[in-house]
Amino acid sequence: MKTITVYLDESLSTHDMLKLKREIMALPHVTDVEHPRHAEHDLTIDYEAHAEMPGMVLKELRSKGFHPDVVSA
Predict the structure, then answer these.
(1) pLDDT tens, 56-71?
(2) Distance separating alpha carbons of residues 57 and 51, to the nearest angstrom
(3) What does residue 7 show for φ and ψ, rounded to 5 degrees?
């Protein structure tokens, strides 16, 4: 398994963050999505090791109008 942390410029309500987490979980090869309470703008995404996910995640977030940055991969 691999992990990336994505920073979102936008602030999201709890409802919108839960919705976004569900949408990311629906992507192929994603195994978990976490939103640390202490890091309001971060999402940690776990995915299968063989998948090339950072680009797919960024593309998906941008298509929804977000301004993401990969903080760690």
Answers:
(1) 899 999 999 999 999 8
(2) 11
(3) -100, 130
Q: Does the pTM exceed 0.85?
A: yes
Q: Where are the domains of the chain?
A: 2-72
Distance CA 69, CA 49 (A): 20
Strand 68-72: give its sheet, edge to edge.
Answer: 30-34, 42-47, 2-8, 68-72
Q: Give the CATH architecture of domain 2-72.
A: 2-Layer Sandwich (3.30)
DSSP label of 33: E
Strand, helix or coil for residue 17: helix
